[in-house]
């Protein structure tokens, strides 16, 4: 029997070896700054949608090592007695800054910044990364699928194809934040309040002597929630005709005017067009058509472009696993340390230019035009402020000759303080509020940023002061090693 899990133990071993080493080296109380960010947007898209902050808050609030954890760690024969004693009383005492959950985010800007004693900051790494990497990936995928469907309803139906309990549960929540209407996952409804629903599988139809009888009995039991799965035997010759007959025999006499058919296989464009014609000819123009079967944003876009008269899309495996690009790839890097009240920037240098980090304690401003559209993001030093009554010029951090000046604009500070000295100071929004914020954020993007092929590059630039710090550090390192 598996023992009850304590999320505090979701660690990579090296985090504990380093933590033990910091304590043994007398450096456990040194304050550091870590940034969590990503370098590349999934599916070569133009943006990502941040999800997972609420899960992280729960983790931080409950972060403790219990007696069983301590006993287990002793058996590894890798940690000092002083470190084991330190873990017995462990709790997070630092500060956390983050984007609001549901915000659109872009490569290389800190999604979260952790300011804390080094051991505390190091111990958070794996949990924070796995939460952000998974939930942000699914929320982003869901937003793309919903965008492709235009004004149609999208349902998340992927629990049975998800990679375990956490993947299905938190994936359903992230998908809801990303814009889907509901989930098939009842646990996500119970825990998070994500609306759940569902009707029948093929096994229901097979259990009865005839397809007509199966549909009729379902309509009798669930007259106000009748969706008939019409492809068990023959969609057009059997399924749709039997659904029409049951609607006329059972539902219409009861005054029911809301019903649907669902197609789960075959050529969805052809079948939905033929089914629509059959329904309309029968006077059932109000009968909606639901389709499922390995859908994603590109297939949905193609179906609608081909004129498929589909009202509802049920999306499973390709959403809950983000099948087309299943790794989000955010990273957790040291950006600064603090000594005697002074913040000392730190930088990681690499032969790969994209892996060179941006040093220092930073914040992010979003440049917004007069219509509320997002124009660019500006990463600045934490203390920097900007006078919006004056023009703002931003420039590409690599190709510095590329510049843009904003005359009339507003700046939104994207980081909010979530924890202060280990205490939660953030007013936690409901999942509905997060979903609403995500919708507002997505609508504030230019359509060119949201397109699937060759999206417009959304610029994330550095303030002149931060750019100067970074490039001086790179110059100094080059001179030291030349």
Notes on the structure:
The chain has 482 residues and is α/β, with parallel strands linked by helices. It folds into two domains: 287 residues, nicotinate phosphoribosyltransferase; 178 residues, TIM Barrel (Alpha-Beta Barrel). It contains 17 helices and 21 strands. It has a seven-stranded antiparallel sheet. A six-stranded parallel sheet has the order 7-6-11-10-9-8. β19 and β20 form a beta hairpin. The longest helix is centred in the first third of the chain and has 24 residues. It is globular.
Sum up the structure in keywords.
482 residues, nicotinate phosphoribosyltransferase, TIM Barrel, six-stranded parallel beta sheet, 17 helices, 21 strands
Radius of gyration from the alpha-carbon trace, in angstroms:
27 Å
Structural class: alpha/beta
Which word captures the global form?
globular
* CATH class categorisation of the largest domain: Alpha Beta
Side by side, the strands of the main sheet go 13-12-1-5-3-19-20
State the CATH architecture of the largest domain: Alpha-Beta Barrel
Low-confidence stretches: none
CATH homologous superfamily assignment of the largest domain = nicotinate phosphoribosyltransferase
- Give the tally of β-strands: 21
| Number of individual domains | 2
Beta-strand proportion = 15-25%
The major pleated sheet works out as:
7 strands, antiparallel
At the third CATH level, what is the topology name of the largest domain?
nicotinate phosphoribosyltransferase
For the terminal residues, how far apart are their CA atoms? 58 Å
Count every helix, treating DSSP H or I runs of 4 or more residues as helices: 17
Helix content: 25-40%
Overall pLDDT level: 96
């Amino acid at each position: 029997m598996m023992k009850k899990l304590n999320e505090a133990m979701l660690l990579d071993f090296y985090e504990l070896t380093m933590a033990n080493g910091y304590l043994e080296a007398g450096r456990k109380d040194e304050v550091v700054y870590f940034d969590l960010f990503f370098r590349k947007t999934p599916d070569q898209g133009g943006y990502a949608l941040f999800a997972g902050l609420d899960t992280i808050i729960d983790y931080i609030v409950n972060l403790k090592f219990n007696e069983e954890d301590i006993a287990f760690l002793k058996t590894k024969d890798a940690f000092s007695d002083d470190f084991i004693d330190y873990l017995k009383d462990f709790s997070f005492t630092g500060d956390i800054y983050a984007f609001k959950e549901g915000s659109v985010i872009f490569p290389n800007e800190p999604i979260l910044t952790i300011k804390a004693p080094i051991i505390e900051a190091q111990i958070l790494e794996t949990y924070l990364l796995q939460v952000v990497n998974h939930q942000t990936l699914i929320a982003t995928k869901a937003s793309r699928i919903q965008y492709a469907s235009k004004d149609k309803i999208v349902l998340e139906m992927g629990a049975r194809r998800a990679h375990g309990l956490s993947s299905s549960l938190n994936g359903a929540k992230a998908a809801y934040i990303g814009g889907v209407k509901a989930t098939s996952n009842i646990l996500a409804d119970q825990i998070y309040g994500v609306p759940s629903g569902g009707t029948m599988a093929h096994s229901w139809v097979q259990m009865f002597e005839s397809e007509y009888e199966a549909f009729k009995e379902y309509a009798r039991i669930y007259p106000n929630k009748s969706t008939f799965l019409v492809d068990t035997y023959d969609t057009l010759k059997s399924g749709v005709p039997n659904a029409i007959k049951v609607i006329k025999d059972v539902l219409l006499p009861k005054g029911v005017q809301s019903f649907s058919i669902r197609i789960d296989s075959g050529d969805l464009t052809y079948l939905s067009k033929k089914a629509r014609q059959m329904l309309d000819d029968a006077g059932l123009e109000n009968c909606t058509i639901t389709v499922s079967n390995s859908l994603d944003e590109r297939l949905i876009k193609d179906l609608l472009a081909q004129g498929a008269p589909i009202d509802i899309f049920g999306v499973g495996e390709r959403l809950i696993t983000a099948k087309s690009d299943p790794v989000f790839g955010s990273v957790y890097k040291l950006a600064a340390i603090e000594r005697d009240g002074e913040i000392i920037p730190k930088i990681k240098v690499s032969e790969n230019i994209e892996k060179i980090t941006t040093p220092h304690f930073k914040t992010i401003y979003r440049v917004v035009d007069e219509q509320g559209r997002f124009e660019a993001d500006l990463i600045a030093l934490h203390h920097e402020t900007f006078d919006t009554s004056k023009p703002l010029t931003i420039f590409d951090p690599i190709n510095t000759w590329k510049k843009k000046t904003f005359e009339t604009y507003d700046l939104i500070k994207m980081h909010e303080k979530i924890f202060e000295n280990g205490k939660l100071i953030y007013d936690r929004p409901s999942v509905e509020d997060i979903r609403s914020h995500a919708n507002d954020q997505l609508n504030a993007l230019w359509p060119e940023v949201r397109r699937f092929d060759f999206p417009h590059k959304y610029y994330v630039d550095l303030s002149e002061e931060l750019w100067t710090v970074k490039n001086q550090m790179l110059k100094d390192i080059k001179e030291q090693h030349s």
